[in-house]
Batch of 2 targets.
Target 1
Amino acid sequence: MAQQLQFNAKDGEVVVTGDLDRNTVPQGWADRKRWLPTSKDVVLNLEGVDHVDSAGLAMLIRLRSELEADNQNLVLHNLNTQLQQFARVSGVEGLVSLS
Protein backbone atom coordinates (compact mmCIF):
# COMPACT_ATOMS: atom_id res chain seq x y z
CA MET A 1 0.00 0.00 0.00
CA ALA A 2 1.37 3.40 -1.00
CA GLN A 3 2.27 5.94 1.64
CA GLN A 4 0.34 9.16 1.20
CA LEU A 5 2.29 11.82 -0.65
CA GLN A 6 2.57 15.07 1.27
CA PHE A 7 4.04 18.47 0.44
CA ASN A 8 4.79 20.80 3.36
CA ALA A 9 6.46 24.21 3.24
CA LYS A 10 9.27 24.50 5.78
CA ASP A 11 12.25 26.86 5.99
CA GLY A 12 12.01 28.09 2.40
CA GLU A 13 11.56 24.69 0.79
CA VAL A 14 8.83 22.15 0.16
CA VAL A 15 9.43 18.96 2.11
CA VAL A 16 8.05 15.95 0.24
CA THR A 17 7.21 12.78 2.17
CA GLY A 18 5.64 9.45 1.27
CA ASP A 19 5.63 7.55 -2.00
CA LEU A 20 6.10 9.34 -5.30
CA ASP A 21 4.48 6.75 -7.55
CA ARG A 22 1.55 6.03 -9.86
CA ASN A 23 -0.81 5.70 -6.89
CA THR A 24 0.02 9.07 -5.32
CA VAL A 25 1.23 11.30 -8.17
CA PRO A 26 -2.22 12.14 -9.64
CA GLN A 27 -3.43 13.71 -6.40
CA GLY A 28 -0.11 15.44 -5.73
CA TRP A 29 -0.16 16.91 -9.21
CA ALA A 30 -3.78 18.02 -8.92
CA ASP A 31 -2.96 19.78 -5.63
CA ARG A 32 0.22 21.49 -6.86
CA LYS A 33 -1.29 24.98 -6.87
CA ARG A 34 -1.83 24.57 -3.12
CA TRP A 35 1.74 23.53 -2.23
CA LEU A 36 3.79 25.11 -5.02
CA PRO A 37 5.51 28.35 -3.96
CA THR A 38 5.67 31.35 -6.27
CA SER A 39 9.34 32.05 -5.52
CA LYS A 40 11.97 32.17 -8.28
CA ASP A 41 13.63 28.99 -6.98
CA VAL A 42 11.26 26.19 -6.01
CA VAL A 43 13.18 23.85 -3.71
CA LEU A 44 11.82 20.35 -3.18
CA ASN A 45 13.45 18.40 -0.35
CA LEU A 46 12.86 14.74 -1.24
CA GLU A 47 14.52 13.26 1.84
CA GLY A 48 11.19 11.87 3.08
CA VAL A 49 10.31 10.10 -0.17
CA ASP A 50 10.28 6.35 0.44
CA HIS A 51 9.42 4.92 -2.96
CA VAL A 52 9.61 6.31 -6.50
CA ASP A 53 8.51 4.89 -9.82
CA SER A 54 8.43 6.23 -13.38
CA ALA A 55 5.28 8.27 -12.64
CA GLY A 56 7.15 10.11 -9.88
CA LEU A 57 10.05 10.85 -12.21
CA ALA A 58 7.63 12.01 -14.91
CA MET A 59 5.94 14.35 -12.43
CA LEU A 60 9.26 15.99 -11.56
CA ILE A 61 10.15 16.42 -15.24
CA ARG A 62 6.75 17.92 -16.02
CA LEU A 63 6.94 20.17 -12.97
CA ARG A 64 10.35 21.44 -14.06
CA SER A 65 8.97 22.22 -17.52
CA GLU A 66 5.93 24.03 -16.11
CA LEU A 67 8.07 26.08 -13.74
CA GLU A 68 10.54 27.04 -16.47
CA ALA A 69 7.63 28.32 -18.58
CA ASP A 70 6.84 30.64 -15.63
CA ASN A 71 10.52 31.71 -15.29
CA GLN A 72 11.00 29.66 -12.13
CA ASN A 73 13.68 27.08 -11.33
CA LEU A 74 13.20 23.64 -9.81
CA VAL A 75 15.87 22.66 -7.30
CA LEU A 76 15.83 19.11 -5.93
CA HIS A 77 17.53 18.20 -2.66
CA ASN A 78 18.13 14.80 -1.08
CA LEU A 79 17.15 12.58 -3.99
CA ASN A 80 17.11 8.96 -2.92
CA THR A 81 19.12 6.31 -4.75
CA GLN A 82 16.05 4.89 -6.45
CA LEU A 83 15.15 8.23 -8.04
CA GLN A 84 18.74 8.83 -9.11
CA GLN A 85 18.88 5.41 -10.76
CA PHE A 86 15.55 5.95 -12.55
CA ALA A 87 16.81 9.25 -13.93
CA ARG A 88 20.11 7.74 -15.11
CA VAL A 89 18.49 4.71 -16.73
CA SER A 90 15.93 6.97 -18.40
CA GLY A 91 18.65 9.32 -19.65
CA VAL A 92 17.07 12.36 -17.98
CA GLU A 93 19.54 13.07 -15.19
CA GLY A 94 20.03 16.59 -16.56
CA LEU A 95 16.30 17.25 -16.29
CA VAL A 96 16.31 16.48 -12.57
CA SER A 97 19.64 18.18 -11.86
CA LEU A 98 21.75 15.10 -11.19
CA SER A 99 25.49 15.44 -11.49
Target 2
Amino acid sequence: MRTLINMLRVPNLLIIAFTFFLLRYLVFQPVYTAYSIEPALNSLYFTMMVAATLLIAAAGYISNDYFDIVTDRVNKPLKQYIGKHISAGSALATAILLSLLSTVLAFWLTFALRSWVPAALLTLALTVAWWYAIQLKRSFMWGNIAVACMSAGTIVLAWLIEKQSLQITGEPSKIISGIVAAISIFAFLLSLMREIVKDAEDIEGDKLIECRSLPIVKGIPFTKTFILFLTVLTFLLLVIAQIYLLQFSRIVAVAWLFISVEIPLIYFMAAVKKAHMKSDYHKMSSLIKWIMLGGIATIIASQF
Protein backbone atom coordinates (compact mmCIF):
# COMPACT_ATOMS: atom_id res chain seq x y z
CA MET A 1 0.00 0.00 0.00
CA ARG A 2 2.81 2.40 0.88
CA THR A 3 4.45 1.68 -2.47
CA LEU A 4 1.23 2.54 -4.32
CA ILE A 5 0.81 5.75 -2.32
CA ASN A 6 4.36 6.80 -3.19
CA MET A 7 3.95 5.91 -6.86
CA LEU A 8 0.70 7.87 -7.10
CA ARG A 9 2.29 10.94 -5.47
CA VAL A 10 -0.72 11.28 -3.17
CA PRO A 11 0.37 14.70 -1.78
CA ASN A 12 0.45 16.05 -5.36
CA LEU A 13 -3.00 14.62 -6.05
CA LEU A 14 -4.34 16.23 -2.87
CA ILE A 15 -2.94 19.60 -3.98
CA ILE A 16 -4.71 19.23 -7.34
CA ALA A 17 -8.02 18.40 -5.62
CA PHE A 18 -7.50 21.25 -3.15
CA THR A 19 -6.98 23.68 -6.03
CA PHE A 20 -10.17 22.54 -7.75
CA PHE A 21 -12.29 23.05 -4.65
CA LEU A 22 -10.72 26.43 -3.91
CA LEU A 23 -11.66 27.53 -7.41
CA ARG A 24 -15.22 26.25 -7.08
CA TYR A 25 -16.07 27.65 -3.66
CA LEU A 26 -13.89 30.76 -3.44
CA VAL A 27 -13.78 31.95 -7.08
CA PHE A 28 -16.69 30.57 -9.11
CA GLN A 29 -19.39 30.39 -6.44
CA PRO A 30 -19.05 33.98 -5.11
CA VAL A 31 -19.32 35.39 -8.64
CA TYR A 32 -22.31 33.17 -9.44
CA THR A 33 -24.02 34.30 -6.23
CA ALA A 34 -23.35 37.97 -6.96
CA TYR A 35 -24.88 37.68 -10.45
CA SER A 36 -27.62 35.15 -9.55
CA ILE A 37 -26.18 32.42 -11.77
CA GLU A 38 -26.77 28.70 -11.25
CA PRO A 39 -23.56 26.64 -11.67
CA ALA A 40 -23.52 24.17 -14.56
CA LEU A 41 -21.83 21.43 -12.55
CA ASN A 42 -23.62 20.20 -9.46
CA SER A 43 -21.63 18.58 -6.66
CA LEU A 44 -21.73 15.15 -8.31
CA TYR A 45 -20.55 16.33 -11.72
CA PHE A 46 -17.87 18.53 -10.21
CA THR A 47 -16.57 15.62 -8.14
CA MET A 48 -16.54 13.46 -11.28
CA MET A 49 -14.46 16.09 -13.10
CA VAL A 50 -12.00 16.24 -10.20
CA ALA A 51 -11.83 12.44 -10.04
CA ALA A 52 -11.16 12.17 -13.79
CA THR A 53 -8.35 14.72 -13.50
CA LEU A 54 -6.79 12.92 -10.54
CA LEU A 55 -6.95 9.59 -12.39
CA ILE A 56 -5.16 11.16 -15.37
CA ALA A 57 -2.47 12.61 -13.11
CA ALA A 58 -2.02 9.28 -11.31
CA ALA A 59 -1.80 7.39 -14.61
CA GLY A 60 0.77 9.92 -15.78
CA TYR A 61 2.92 9.45 -12.69
CA ILE A 62 2.94 5.65 -12.98
CA SER A 63 3.51 5.58 -16.76
CA ASN A 64 6.35 8.06 -16.34
CA ASP A 65 7.98 5.81 -13.75
CA TYR A 66 7.46 2.81 -16.03
CA PHE A 67 9.34 4.41 -18.91
CA ASP A 68 11.99 5.81 -16.51
CA ILE A 69 13.15 2.49 -15.05
CA VAL A 70 16.66 2.86 -16.50
CA THR A 71 17.20 6.51 -15.53
CA ASP A 72 15.68 6.12 -12.06
CA ARG A 73 18.38 3.60 -11.16
CA VAL A 74 20.80 6.53 -11.33
CA ASN A 75 18.62 9.57 -10.64
CA LYS A 76 16.63 8.32 -7.66
CA PRO A 77 17.55 4.75 -6.67
CA LEU A 78 15.90 5.08 -3.25
CA LYS A 79 12.60 6.12 -4.83
CA GLN A 80 12.47 3.50 -7.56
CA TYR A 81 9.46 1.29 -6.96
CA ILE A 82 8.93 -0.47 -10.29
CA GLY A 83 11.11 -3.57 -10.47
CA LYS A 84 11.68 -3.57 -6.70
CA HIS A 85 8.27 -3.40 -5.01
CA ILE A 86 5.98 -3.86 -8.01
CA SER A 87 6.56 -5.56 -11.35
CA ALA A 88 6.81 -3.53 -14.54
CA GLY A 89 3.79 -5.35 -15.97
CA SER A 90 1.63 -4.59 -12.93
CA ALA A 91 2.64 -0.92 -13.03
CA LEU A 92 1.78 -0.61 -16.71
CA ALA A 93 -1.54 -2.40 -16.19
CA THR A 94 -2.39 -0.02 -13.33
CA ALA A 95 -1.60 3.03 -15.46
CA ILE A 96 -3.79 1.71 -18.29
CA LEU A 97 -6.64 0.92 -15.89
CA LEU A 98 -6.54 4.42 -14.38
CA SER A 99 -6.51 5.89 -17.90
CA LEU A 100 -9.58 3.87 -18.88
CA LEU A 101 -11.44 4.93 -15.74
CA SER A 102 -10.67 8.59 -16.43
CA THR A 103 -11.93 8.18 -20.00
CA VAL A 104 -15.19 6.64 -18.78
CA LEU A 105 -15.74 9.58 -16.40
CA ALA A 106 -14.87 12.08 -19.13
CA PHE A 107 -17.46 10.70 -21.55
CA TRP A 108 -20.01 10.28 -18.77
CA LEU A 109 -19.63 14.00 -18.05
CA THR A 110 -19.93 14.83 -21.73
CA PHE A 111 -23.25 12.99 -22.03
CA ALA A 112 -24.55 14.33 -18.71
CA LEU A 113 -23.74 17.95 -19.59
CA ARG A 114 -24.52 17.54 -23.29
CA SER A 115 -21.22 19.22 -24.11
CA TRP A 116 -18.18 17.87 -25.97
CA VAL A 117 -15.81 19.95 -23.83
CA PRO A 118 -15.24 17.51 -20.89
CA ALA A 119 -14.39 14.54 -23.14
CA ALA A 120 -12.22 16.66 -25.45
CA LEU A 121 -10.20 18.38 -22.71
CA LEU A 122 -9.78 15.37 -20.44
CA THR A 123 -8.86 13.08 -23.34
CA LEU A 124 -6.32 15.66 -24.53
CA ALA A 125 -4.80 15.82 -21.04
CA LEU A 126 -4.56 12.02 -20.91
CA THR A 127 -2.95 11.89 -24.36
CA VAL A 128 -0.35 14.49 -23.42
CA ALA A 129 0.43 12.63 -20.16
CA TRP A 130 1.20 9.41 -22.04
CA TRP A 131 2.99 11.23 -24.88
CA TYR A 132 5.22 12.90 -22.30
CA ALA A 133 6.07 9.60 -20.62
CA ILE A 134 6.84 7.83 -23.90
CA GLN A 135 8.61 10.52 -25.94
CA LEU A 136 8.28 14.20 -25.06
CA LYS A 137 10.40 14.14 -21.90
CA ARG A 138 13.42 13.15 -24.01
CA SER A 139 13.02 16.11 -26.39
CA PHE A 140 14.52 19.56 -26.04
CA MET A 141 12.22 21.63 -23.81
CA TRP A 142 8.96 20.19 -25.18
CA GLY A 143 8.60 17.84 -22.23
CA ASN A 144 9.09 20.72 -19.80
CA ILE A 145 6.53 22.83 -21.64
CA ALA A 146 4.05 19.92 -21.72
CA VAL A 147 4.22 19.45 -17.94
CA ALA A 148 3.92 23.20 -17.36
CA CYS A 149 0.89 23.33 -19.66
CA MET A 150 -0.74 20.44 -17.80
CA SER A 151 -0.17 22.19 -14.47
CA ALA A 152 -1.73 25.39 -15.77
CA GLY A 153 -4.35 23.43 -17.71
CA THR A 154 -5.66 21.81 -14.54
CA ILE A 155 -6.81 25.25 -13.42
CA VAL A 156 -8.16 26.25 -16.83
CA LEU A 157 -9.96 22.92 -17.25
CA ALA A 158 -12.49 23.55 -14.48
CA TRP A 159 -13.42 26.97 -15.85
CA LEU A 160 -13.63 25.91 -19.51
CA ILE A 161 -16.03 23.07 -18.70
CA GLU A 162 -18.14 25.32 -16.50
CA LYS A 163 -18.09 28.23 -18.95
CA GLN A 164 -18.99 26.14 -21.98
CA SER A 165 -21.82 24.38 -20.17
CA LEU A 166 -23.25 27.63 -18.81
CA GLN A 167 -22.64 29.70 -21.92
CA ILE A 168 -21.71 32.42 -19.46
CA THR A 169 -20.66 35.82 -20.87
CA GLY A 170 -20.32 39.45 -19.86
CA GLU A 171 -18.93 40.70 -16.54
CA PRO A 172 -19.10 37.36 -14.63
CA SER A 173 -17.09 35.64 -17.38
CA LYS A 174 -14.59 38.50 -17.44
CA ILE A 175 -14.02 38.39 -13.68
CA ILE A 176 -13.52 34.63 -13.44
CA SER A 177 -11.46 34.43 -16.65
CA GLY A 178 -9.09 37.10 -15.32
CA ILE A 179 -8.55 35.26 -12.03
CA VAL A 180 -8.09 31.89 -13.75
CA ALA A 181 -5.65 33.38 -16.29
CA ALA A 182 -3.52 34.93 -13.53
CA ILE A 183 -3.33 31.70 -11.53
CA SER A 184 -2.63 29.66 -14.67
CA ILE A 185 0.26 31.87 -15.78
CA PHE A 186 1.75 31.62 -12.29
CA ALA A 187 1.38 27.81 -12.33
CA PHE A 188 2.89 27.56 -15.82
CA LEU A 189 6.02 29.58 -15.02
CA LEU A 190 6.72 27.86 -11.70
CA SER A 191 6.10 24.40 -13.17
CA LEU A 192 8.45 25.17 -16.06
CA MET A 193 11.12 26.33 -13.61
CA ARG A 194 10.70 23.20 -11.51
CA GLU A 195 10.93 20.86 -14.49
CA ILE A 196 14.17 22.50 -15.63
CA VAL A 197 15.59 22.32 -12.11
CA LYS A 198 14.68 18.60 -12.00
CA ASP A 199 16.48 18.15 -15.33
CA ALA A 200 19.60 19.68 -13.78
CA GLU A 201 19.23 17.31 -10.83
CA ASP A 202 18.77 14.27 -13.09
CA ILE A 203 21.41 15.09 -15.68
CA GLU A 204 23.47 11.93 -15.03
CA GLY A 205 20.64 9.46 -15.55
CA ASP A 206 19.16 11.41 -18.47
CA LYS A 207 22.41 11.06 -20.40
CA LEU A 208 21.96 7.27 -20.35
CA ILE A 209 18.88 7.50 -22.58
CA GLU A 210 20.27 10.34 -24.71
CA CYS A 211 17.74 12.81 -23.34
CA ARG A 212 18.03 16.29 -24.88
CA SER A 213 17.21 18.26 -21.75
CA LEU A 214 18.24 21.89 -21.43
CA PRO A 215 21.17 21.18 -19.05
CA ILE A 216 22.53 18.48 -21.38
CA VAL A 217 22.14 20.47 -24.61
CA LYS A 218 23.06 23.96 -23.38
CA GLY A 219 25.01 23.24 -20.22
CA ILE A 220 24.48 24.11 -16.57
CA PRO A 221 25.60 27.80 -16.75
CA PHE A 222 23.05 28.59 -19.50
CA THR A 223 20.37 26.58 -17.67
CA LYS A 224 20.91 28.54 -14.45
CA THR A 225 20.70 31.82 -16.36
CA PHE A 226 17.42 30.73 -17.99
CA ILE A 227 15.98 29.68 -14.61
CA LEU A 228 16.90 33.10 -13.19
CA PHE A 229 15.20 34.79 -16.16
CA LEU A 230 11.99 32.85 -15.50
CA THR A 231 12.22 33.67 -11.79
CA VAL A 232 12.59 37.40 -12.44
CA LEU A 233 9.70 37.30 -14.92
CA THR A 234 7.52 35.55 -12.35
CA PHE A 235 8.51 38.09 -9.71
CA LEU A 236 7.61 41.04 -11.95
CA LEU A 237 4.23 39.55 -12.80
CA LEU A 238 3.57 39.03 -9.09
CA VAL A 239 4.28 42.71 -8.43
CA ILE A 240 1.78 43.63 -11.15
CA ALA A 241 -0.77 41.30 -9.55
CA GLN A 242 -0.18 42.93 -6.17
CA ILE A 243 -0.74 46.40 -7.61
CA TYR A 244 -4.01 45.15 -9.10
CA LEU A 245 -5.07 43.58 -5.77
CA LEU A 246 -4.36 46.83 -3.94
CA GLN A 247 -6.95 48.57 -6.12
CA PHE A 248 -9.55 46.29 -4.52
CA SER A 249 -8.09 46.69 -1.00
CA ARG A 250 -6.92 43.07 -0.83
CA ILE A 251 -4.17 43.91 1.65
CA VAL A 252 -4.02 40.41 3.16
CA ALA A 253 -3.53 38.82 -0.28
CA VAL A 254 -0.76 41.30 -1.12
CA ALA A 255 1.01 40.58 2.17
CA TRP A 256 0.55 36.83 1.71
CA LEU A 257 2.12 36.92 -1.76
CA PHE A 258 5.08 38.87 -0.39
CA ILE A 259 5.68 36.51 2.54
CA SER A 260 4.87 33.12 1.01
CA VAL A 261 5.92 33.65 -2.61
CA GLU A 262 8.18 36.63 -3.24
CA ILE A 263 10.54 36.17 -0.28
CA PRO A 264 11.00 32.44 -1.10
CA LEU A 265 11.59 33.39 -4.75
CA ILE A 266 14.40 35.72 -3.68
CA TYR A 267 15.91 32.88 -1.64
CA PHE A 268 15.44 30.59 -4.65
CA MET A 269 17.38 32.97 -6.91
CA ALA A 270 20.27 32.97 -4.44
CA ALA A 271 20.14 29.16 -4.34
CA VAL A 272 20.28 28.97 -8.16
CA LYS A 273 23.51 30.96 -8.24
CA LYS A 274 25.15 28.75 -5.60
CA ALA A 275 23.87 25.37 -6.83
CA HIS A 276 26.48 22.90 -8.03
CA MET A 277 25.50 19.55 -6.48
CA LYS A 278 22.59 17.19 -7.14
CA SER A 279 21.31 17.78 -3.62
CA ASP A 280 21.21 21.54 -4.25
CA TYR A 281 18.85 21.11 -7.20
CA HIS A 282 16.70 18.69 -5.21
CA LYS A 283 16.22 21.29 -2.48
CA MET A 284 15.39 23.93 -5.10
CA SER A 285 12.77 21.65 -6.65
CA SER A 286 11.12 21.12 -3.24
CA LEU A 287 11.19 24.86 -2.58
CA ILE A 288 9.34 25.61 -5.81
CA LYS A 289 6.63 23.13 -4.85
CA TRP A 290 6.10 25.01 -1.58
CA ILE A 291 6.07 28.32 -3.46
CA MET A 292 3.38 26.95 -5.78
CA LEU A 293 1.29 25.88 -2.80
CA GLY A 294 1.74 29.32 -1.26
CA GLY A 295 0.61 30.93 -4.51
CA ILE A 296 -2.50 28.75 -4.68
CA ALA A 297 -3.32 29.64 -1.07
CA THR A 298 -3.54 33.27 -2.19
CA ILE A 299 -7.09 32.39 -3.27
CA ILE A 300 -7.88 32.00 0.43
CA ALA A 301 -5.98 35.14 1.44
CA SER A 302 -7.88 37.19 -1.13
CA GLN A 303 -11.12 36.52 0.76
CA PHE A 304 -10.04 38.90 3.53
